[in-house]
Each structure stands twice: as C-alpha cells, then as structure tokens.
Amino acid sequence: MPETPSDVKAAPKDAVKTPSGLASKVLTKGTGEEHPAAADTVTVHYSGWTTDGKLFDSSVKRGEPTSFPLNGVIKGWTEGVQLMVQGEKRRFWIPADLAYGENPGGGRPGGLLVFDIELISIKKAPKAPALTAPADAEKTALGVSLKTVAKGTGTASPKGEDTVSVNLSLWSPEGELLQSTAQQGGPANIPLDKLTIGGLPEAIKTMVAGEKKVVWIPASVAFGKNLPPGAPAGGLVVEVELVSFKEGVPPPPTPSDVAEVPADAQKTASGLAFKVLAKGTGDVHPKATDSVTVHYSGWTLDGKLFDSSVTRGEPSSFGLNQVIKGWTEGVQLMVKGEKRRFWIPAGLAYGENPGGGRPGGMLVFDIELLEVQK
C-alpha cells in the first residue's frame, strides 16, 4: 500500500507552480532527456489521494503500470507529465479545474487531487504527413485524394464485405492527431462495411496487404452534410496501412418483393405476413420459451440490408421470447431446416421511428431455422 504523503493537504512552499495552477515537486530525478508530447503514449506507475489522505486509485497497489495517450486524461496529467523525463518521479497537486471539478459525481474524486507519478516509458505518436494533398495525388470521384507512400506485397484487394486489419492514424487539417491505432497497442480489425468515415472504405478497397497510403478526405465526404460535434470542419488527413484482410461472405441479394407484401404471402391475425422459401426437415415447432439458432438477413422496404448473420458467417442463438414480437410469433410457425420470408409490421418490430440506430417501419426478414433448444 503506497504511503500517504505528509504534504497531501496542500502544495508545500518548495513546490513549483505553472500559470495554470498546477504544482509539482520532483521526488526522483529521471534518466531520460526527452519530454513526452501531448499526443504521445506514456507508461506510468501512479497513486492518487484526496486532500484528506484517502487513496482513491493506484497502479502501484495493483502491481501493474498503466499506459495511455497523454491527451486522453485529465488536464493536470496532460500538462504535468509533459514536464517529466523517463525514470522521473514527481508529486503533483492538481487543482479541481484541472482534474474532475469540485463535485464530479460518478464515483470520481472532487477538489484538489494529489498524485505521485513515475514516468516509465514514452511511445512517440506518429508524425503527421503532408496536411494538403500533393499535385500528383490520385483523386476519386468523391473528391478524396490518395497517395501511396509504401508499396504492398499482396496481390488482391479487399471487398466491401471483408474484414480488414489496419493501422490507422487520423489528423485534423491543422495537424492535430485525433486518433491512432499506435496509441491503442496495435492494428484494428474492422469490417469494411462498418467503417463510418466516408471515403475511407473506398480508399482501402484500392489497396493490397502491406501497402500504406495517405488519404485526404473533405469534411462533406468524411462526415456527411451534418458535421458531428467536435469533428474538424476541414475534413481529415488519414494514414492507413493495410496489414491484412479476411474475406467475408457477400451480402445476400435483396429480395425482389422487399417493397411490399406479395399477393401469395400468408397473413396471421396480428398482421404478420410470410412465405415459405424452403421446406424444413423437422416436425416440431419451437415454443416461445425455447431457444433457437438461426441464420437471418433483414431489410427495410427500400432494400437496405441492416443486419445479417449470413454476412457475419456465424448463426445467431437467442431465447424466442427475447426478440421482437414478429420474430417470436413467426419462428414458432417454422420447423428445423425451414426457411421463410417475413414481412413484419412496425407494431411487431421496432415501431415507426424507434431511434437508437434501429430500423423503423415494416421490416423484411429471411430466416432459416437451424436448431431448437428446449
């Protein structure tokens, strides 16, 4: 257990203060010469006390140091650790406005906080590439600029349904590092169709394994018409390295009758409509209290695929009374091995305007019942 500092109540006279009000005192001199920058990732041991001497957090007590991007913590840490060098240990007195405030809630400590911090190592953040696209950059139809900075060794490029392993770093047009997989310990594995930065999936589809590109993306392409809070108005500069990719399953074709219930579909009293696509091999229908394993794909009436276990390459299991009403009712009509198409009214699905990213209105599902667990 770290010992409570004798000067925990207030910064002593020999502490050094910065203009922000941060006070510090060197406890052990460091062996390094370089100071970390705000975008760098540091590894530290630390202990933190409130001014009444209560230890509220300690990596020392846990027996394991912690690593984090220095610009992702409280202001007092971001400012203070930049004053240090590797091997140095300091005590900081961090005012409330550089910490969590006076009454932060959520279990966080309020008021002036005291930290002992030992800087173990520094991992430098990636350096920004050219912030404007050079004249010889390739341009896409969307207005995205691309330039290869390292050739790859692969021969194939990923498709929209594939999952890519990428090293990514994102900067604002002013050169501020916004995010980087280098700060997170390694490449990110991302299904290309889930990558939300406009223009970037198309850029990655032009790459092969081992290739590195810089991509300049206008804000209107990266974020759409409505700029999210905190997003850089000038767009993004992205350095992307395609480490590898895993081939996915192509999305199922959109049903030709997705827009409305066909005349040959059957209807239940609730308004649920369905059509048998493939007969089953079983003779037992699941009950609402059973669990089932299915493959499924779901579309909105405009033909947009919003979810599919088929494209993920893995069936889904769930309690039949834990899903939307249309599924609970519809799957009970099926037997093992059967495949049906369902037209599920909004009242049996998520409603007309559900929010939270869920699709509204009538939904169309193709469901294949693989197993029934009583």
Q: For the record, what CATH class of the largest domain applies? A: Alpha Beta
Specify the CATH architecture of the largest domain.
Roll
Largest sheet: 7 strands, antiparallel
What form results from the Cα inertia axes? globular
Q: Which percent band covers the strand fraction?
A: 25-35%
Q: H/E order of the elements? A: EEEEHEHEEEEEEEHEHEEEEEHEHEE
Q: How many DSSP helices?
A: 6
User: What is the residue-averaged pLDDT?
Assistant: 95
User: Could you please say which CATH topology of the largest domain applies here?
Assistant: Chitinase A, domain 3
End-to-end separation in angstroms reads 52 Å
Structurally, how many domains make up the residues?
3
Bin the helical content.
under 10%
Radius of gyration: 28 Å
- Classify the secondary structure makeup into a structural class: mainly beta
Number of strands: 21
Low-confidence stretches: none
